[in-house]
Amino acid sequence: MLSSKPDEVSPVLIDDAVAIVNSGVDYFTYLFDLGGNPPLVEIPYDIMNQLTGQAITVEYRDVFADVVSATSVWLICEPK
After folding, report:
1. Are 70 and 14 in contact (CB under 8 A)?
2. Is the pLDDT of residue 70 over 90?
3. HSE (CB half, 13 Å, CA atoms) of 15?
4. How far does Cα 16 stand from its chain's mean position?
5. Rounded distance, CA 34 to CA 9, Å?
6. Per-residue three-class SS string for the chain
7. What is the pLDDT of residues 15-65, one digit of tens each?
8. S-S: 19 plus which of 13, 24, 29, 39, CB 3.0-4.6 Å?
């Protein structure tokens, strides 16, 4: 799960999108709706399980304009 706090689940907001990348391949992307409340962004368990033990990159992506901004973002584990 992506969280704006390192020790608890908290909504994140990124203008415009976020991607979880490994070796140049997008495994997960999420496009934010900036008109609503910040969401809880859950990365599916099967994707995280597939990436266990590998280096990943969290990329912020600009989609609609020349602005990229974000709350703090932490990748945290919530027991299943």
Report:
1. yes
2. no
3. 10
4. 11
5. 19
6. CEECCCCCCCCCCEECEEEEEECCEEEEEEECCCCCCCCCECCCHHHHHHCCCCCCEEEEECCCCCCCEECCCEECCCCC
7. 889 999 999 999 999 998 877 778 889 999 999 999 999 999 999 998 888
8. 29
